[in-house]
Each structure stands twice: as structure tokens, then as C-alpha cells.
């Protein structure tokens, strides 16, 4: 958070230079957003960046507190999809001009548009879209004799790893990433966490269902198998990546950026990395990979709303989506972004992997779009963690608890 002296200095610098300074609050990355901010600064305004906390929930808390206080020090913000509806419903987001909505809707993946929409309107600008695929070690699957050219199930990869001394790396710490896995498992079994979200607190929770039981069975099986990493209950993306890169690495579900995270410390490792569609929860039923990403919102309380809207139009252009993807590994929110700047991404990623990313985005299952997502997510984390505690009764227990939280009968 900027200090008072920092804010005064920023205002003074803006006044002295005669240029508006737009402050963009970004999620931590390896420099992609800062590069795009520089690209989109103009003779009329300069875009500077301030980095939010690493944890998505902490990002939400910091932004929400400042926006609730009508803080004009935020102009543009990078918003995780689950919190878009909450911010829009609270009136924190300035309406996107209709022509910008139309342009973004036309260029963006459907999943990106869905995640950026609340109450029938696009409320944030899709910037990048992330998804997970199943990564595997080619040497391991050759030893295990599993055919990765065909769709595989969670049961198959857990069994293959268990029988051949391998580990299945996932994200199962008590945090948002674990909810991403739960949501993907339930969606892959044909269910969803909640429906009728337009009814607010009276939405229909659907965790206690056959799909919920199928999801719980996968988590229970992995947690009690020899394929479970020792750090399963605290594993986030980085820990999963370390397990996969270790001597027992076999399978891993993780985001697009993981592909280029090994070469610096282990040159040549990528030659042993294979990739395919996210595992099926139920055999024969197409998987629904996770959807992640970032949408850009303009604060209602910004003193420079018009300039900020111009800025996000530039930031979310296919050319700058590609620039961000090349630096960070967070893939574009549009097909055009994959093809921008002379197909620059093709120099870093195999063509079939880029195709898999896009196919997975088309099939991805966003988390429930509701202003009450934080309650749903917190309730799932409280009742499905640790993974070793998950059983056939977990879906029903979690649904009751979340319903109690939503209606004020229990506290998270």
C-alpha cells in the first residue's frame, strides 16, 4: 500500500510533469505487467505499477478495503476471476464503455468473457487466461506402460504412480488453489458448486451430489495412496512443481507457466515433459480443466476514469497480451494474442502445447460467479482440508456448512 508521503510524491510528480499518473495494482509476476504498462504509457499519461500480495485472498482484502474507503489512489487493478462479481456488485468498478465491451467480447475466449461478466455485462477487461493441463514425465509413463495418447482418468494416473514408485503432484494446501482442484473435479463429473446465483444468498448449492461424491473419491484415493507427495496438504503450485521435477516425479496438474520453470536450473529437463488434457473425473466423461486468469477493472473512485479506460484497451490488445505471455507464461485471453507479434510464442512453446492450452480454455470450468464466492471458497477450504480427511460424507458436510455461513448461522 502506498504511504501518504508516497501518494503526495506521486501527485507532485504528476503535477510537475503535466502528465497524469495512472496507478495499476498488479498481481505478482516476472515483469510482464510492468513491461506492458511501459508499452501503454502515452504523452498524456504514465502507467505505474504497484504489486499486490502473492495470495489471491490477500489481494482481494487489500483492494476491497481501499475501495470501500473510496480511495482514489487506485486507477486500474488486476482482479482474480472469483472476485469480479463481488467487486462489481459492490459498485467498485467503473462501467466499461459499450464499444470496449463489444471489442473485448469479440476478441476474448468464451471462458474469459464468462468469468468477466456479471449481471449480463462485461465488468472487467480479460487480460490473460490460464488453464491447467496434465503434465507427465515421458520416462515414467514409458516405464509404467500407460498410453497417454488417449484420455486418462484420475484413477488411472494414481494407480500408475502407486504401482511404479511415482508421485501425483497437485495443489492441496488450505488456499484458493485447492478449491480450483475441487471445482474442476466436480465440474468434470458433470456437476457444479452452485447454480441460480442471481438469487444471491438463496442460490442453489450443489456440492452434495453424485458429482461431489465422485470428486471426493478422487481426493480420498490420492491422499491415501503411495502416489501422494509427502507435502500434499501444504502443496501449492511451486511445491507441486518441485515434486514433479524430483526423482519420483510422474504426473502433475498445474498452470501454463510451469513449462518454462525448469530449464534455468535443469537444462534439458523439458525433453522429458509430456502434456495432455486434464484428467477425467469419471471415465468417458470429458474433463473440465480449471480456468484462471486476470481481468482488468477501473476503480469507480479513480480521478482518471477516462484515461484508465484508454489504458486498459491498450493493455488488453492482442499484442500486449502476447508480450505479457512471453515474459510470464500466463497465456493470452484471446486467440489473436496467441498469434500476435509474428507468432512469438511459437518460439518458446511447442505448437501442439499452445493448441492444447487453447482447447483446454474452451473446455474450462470457471469457478462459480457470485458476489459470495469468498464464503463458498472459505467453506470448502474449511471442510475439505486436509485432503486425508475427505470422505464420502464431505460433500454433504461442506454444503451444510457453507449454507450456514451464507445465512449467518456459522462463521468461517
Q: How would you describe this protein?
A:
This protein is of the alpha/beta class. It has two domains: about 5-130 and about 290-365, Periplasmic binding protein-like II (D-Maltodextrin-Binding Protein, domain 2, 3-Layer(aba) Sandwich), CATH 3.40.190.10; about 135-290 and about 370-405, Periplasmic binding protein-like II (D-Maltodextrin-Binding Protein, domain 2), CATH 3.40.190. It is about 45% helix and about 15% strand. Strands 1, 2, 3, 6, 7, 10, 11 and 12 form an eight-stranded mixed beta sheet that branches. It has a two-stranded antiparallel sheet with strand order 4-5. The longest helix has 14 residues, at about 5-15. The two termini are about 25 Å apart.
Topology readout:
Blueprint: H1 4-17, E1 20-26, H2 32-40, E2 45-51, H3 56-68, E3 76-79, H4 84-89, H5 98-107, H6 110-115, E4 117-118, E5 121-122, E6 125-137, H7 138-144, H8 154-163, E7 167-169, H9 176-188, E8 194-195, E9 204-205, H10 210-223, H11 237-245, E10 249-255, E11 273-276, E12 291-298, H12 305-315, H13 318-328, H14 335-343, H15 351-363, H16 373-384, H17 394-406
Parallel strand pairs: 1-2, 1-3, 7-10
Antiparallel strand pairs: 3-12, 4-5, 6-10, 6-11, 6-12, 8-9
Helix pairs in contact: 2-13, 9-10, 9-16, 13-14, 16-17
Number of domains: 2
Helical percent range?
40-55%
CATH superfamily of the largest domain: Periplasmic binding protein-like II
Q: Hey, roughly how much beta strand do the residues contain?
A: 5-15%
CATH topology of the largest domain, by name, is D-Maltodextrin-Binding Protein, domain 2
**Number of DSSP strand runs:** 12
CATH architecture of the largest domain: 3-Layer(aba) Sandwich
The value of Rg in angstroms is 21 Å
Amino acid at each position: 500500500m502506498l504511504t501518504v508521503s508516497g501518494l503526495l510524491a506521486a501527485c507532485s510528480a504528476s503535477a510537475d510533469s503535466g502528465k497524469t499518473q495512472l496507478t495499476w495494482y498488479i498481481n505478482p509476476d516476472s515483469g510482464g505487467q510492468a513491461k506492458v504498462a511501459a508499452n501503454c504509457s502515452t504523452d498524456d499519461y504514465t502507467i505505474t505499477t504497484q504489486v499486490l500480495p502473492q495470495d489471491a485472498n490477500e489481494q482481494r482484502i487489500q483492494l476491497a478495503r481501499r475501495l470501500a474507503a473510496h480511495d482514489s489512489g487506485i486507477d486500474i487493478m488486476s482482479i482474480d476471476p472469483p472476485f469480479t462479481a463481488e467487486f462489481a456488485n459492490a459498485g467498485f468498478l467503473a462501467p466499461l464503455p459499450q464499444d470496449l465491451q463489444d471489442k473485448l467480447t469479440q476478441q476474448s475466449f468464451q471462458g474469459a468473457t464468462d468469468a468477466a461478466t456479471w449481471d449480463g455485462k462485461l465488468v472487467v477487461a480479460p487480460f490473460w487466461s490460464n488453464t491447467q493441463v496434465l503434465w507427465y514425465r515421458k520416462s515414467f509413463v514409458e516405464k509404467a506402460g500407460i498410453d497417454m495418447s488417449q484420455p486418462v482418468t484420475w484413477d488411472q494416473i494414481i494407480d500408475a504412480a502407486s504401482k511404479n514408485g511415482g508421485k501425483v503432484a497437485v495443489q492441496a494446501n488450505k488456499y484458493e488453489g485447492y478449491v480450483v482442484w475441487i471445482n474442476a473435479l466436480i465440474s468434470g463429473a458433470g456437476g457444479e458448486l452452485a447454480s441460480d446465483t442471481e438469487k444471491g444468498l438463496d442460490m442453489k448449492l450443489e456440492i452434495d451430489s453424485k458429482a461431489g461424491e465422485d470428486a471426493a473419491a478422487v481426493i480420498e484415493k490420492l491422499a491415501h495412496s503411495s502416489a501422494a507427495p509427502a507435502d500434499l496438504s501444504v502443496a501449492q503450485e511451486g511445491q507441486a512443481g518441485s515434486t514433479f521435477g524430483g526423482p519420483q516425479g510422474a504426473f502433475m496438474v498445474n498452470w501454463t507457466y510451469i513449462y518454462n520453470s525448469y530449464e534455468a536450473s535443469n537444462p534439458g529437463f523439458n525433453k522429458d515433459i509430456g502434456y495432455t488434457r486434464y484428467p477425467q473425473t469419471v471415465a468417458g466423461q470429458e474433463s473440465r480443466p480449471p480456468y484462471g486468469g486476470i481481468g482488468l477493472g477501473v476503480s469507480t473512485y479513480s480521478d482518471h476514469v477516462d484515461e484508465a479506460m484508454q489504458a486498459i484497451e491498450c493493455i488488453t490488445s492482442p499484442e500486449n497480451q502476447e508480450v505479457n505471455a512471453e515474459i510470464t507464461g500466463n497465456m493470452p485471453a484471446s486467440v489473436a494474442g496467441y498469434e500476435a507479434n509474428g507468432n512469438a510464442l511459437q518460439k518458446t512453446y511447442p505448437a501442439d502445447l499452445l493448441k492444447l492450452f487453447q482447447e483446454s480454455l474452451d473446455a474450462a470450468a470457471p469457478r462459480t460467479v457470485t458476489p459470495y464466492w469468498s464464503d463458498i471458497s472459505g467453506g470448502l477450504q474449511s471442510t475439505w482440508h486436509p485432503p486425508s480427511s475427505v470422505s464420502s460424507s464431505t460433500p454433504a458436510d461442506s454444503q451444510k456448512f457453507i449454507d450456514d455461513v451464507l445465512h449467518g448461522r456459522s462463521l468461517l
